[in-house]
Write a structure and sequence with these properties.
213 residues; mainly alpha; 6% strand; globular
């Protein structure tokens, strides 16, 4: 995926999600997402930060979180969710849908992973069907499995992932196999058990055990 393709994918996915969350009622905005401790509104607020967090802002937030990045991400999302209304957050998501700006230290592919995965974090607890675009998921998954930030190399060690809806796989022939749609593989690669029911293979049980730890 080149720069233009990535920008197109980001804009498309952000606008698509904006169309969905714009229709949510007050109770749905307050619904717990798949992200532990975050409501749907917290997740949307987090997504809007991707293209807005300045270097100085990131440094200040890291200092406030005493250098703990997960704490910084959590506190920043909650603060933004408390600061802006759902309508304002939707407007912000649309406003910078095509932005290539990303947080300090993030790689070009990170914002795409973010919007793809968080789209599921939002929609699944609301029992809404939100199909993942295979042509966008494939490069995102390829990036995630080799990136320590998401914990995938350790989580997937000794496992071979095989997509059932795309020409994609990773791992060696001697590894235990986990098969399923690329979108579900992306979810488990980023540590989300929600993708497990759609997976099969002799490595699926082991992966489930790892995700439960």
């Amino acid at each position: 995926m080149d720069r233009d393709d990535l920008r197109t994918a980001l804009e498309s996915e952000r606008l698509r999600l904006a169309d969905v969350v714009e229709t949510l009622g007050p109770e749905e905005w307050r619904t717990p997402s798949l992200c532990t401790g975050w409501t749907v509104q917290d997740v949307v607020a987090h997504i809007t930060l991707t293209s807005r967090l300045t270097k100085l802002g990131a440094i200040r937030a890291m200092l406030a979180a005493r250098g703990r990045i997960n704490r910084m991400i959590d506190e920043s999302a909650r603060a933004r969710a408390a600061q802006f209304s759902p309508a304002e957050l939707v407007a912000q998501l649309r406003e910078t849908a095509g932005s290539e700006r990303r947080p300090l230290g993030a790689k070009p592919m990170d914002p795409l992973v973010d919007i793809l995965v968080h789209g599921q974090d939002i929609n699944r607890p609301l029992h809404r069907t939100y199909p993942m675009t295979v042509e966008y998921v494939v490069p995102a998954l390829g990036f995630v499995v080799g990136t320590k930030f998401y914990g995938a190399p350790k989580r997937l060690a000794g496992l071979r992932l095989v997509a059932t809806d795309a020409d994609w796989s990773t791992g060696s022939a001697s590894d235990r196999e986990v098969r399923g749609p690329v979108g579900e593989l992306l979810l488990v690669a980023t540590g989300r058990p929600a993708g497990l029911p759609a997976l099969s293979g002799d490595g699926a049980e082991e992966l489930a055990a790892r995700l439960s730890d």
